Amino acid sequence: MVGDNRNLAASAGSRFALWHRSSTCLMKSMMNRVPAVFVLRSLCFAGVCGLAAWTGWSAVPKPVPPHKSAPMRKPIAGHAALLKTVTPVRALTPIKPVRKAPIVPPAVIAGGPWTEPTYADSTAGDRVDGEDLAIRRAAVEALGSFNGSVVAVDPTTGRVLAMVNQKLVTSSGFQPCSTVKVSVALAGLNAKVIQPETKYRLPGIRMDLTYALARSNNYYFSTLGQKLGFEKFSYYAHLLGYGERAGLNIPGEQPGRFPTSAPRNGGVGMLTSFGEEIEQTPLQLAALMSAIANGGTLYYLQYPANQDEVRNFVPRVKRRLDIAGMIPVIEPGMRGAVEFGTAHRAADDGDIAGKTGTCTENHAHLGWFGSFNETGKRKLVVVVLLTGGKPSIGPMAAGIAGDVYRRLGDGNYFADATQR
Question: Could you tell me the strand order of the sheet in which 159-164 lies?
Answer without folding.
Answer: 159-164, 148-154, 381-388, 365-373, 352-360
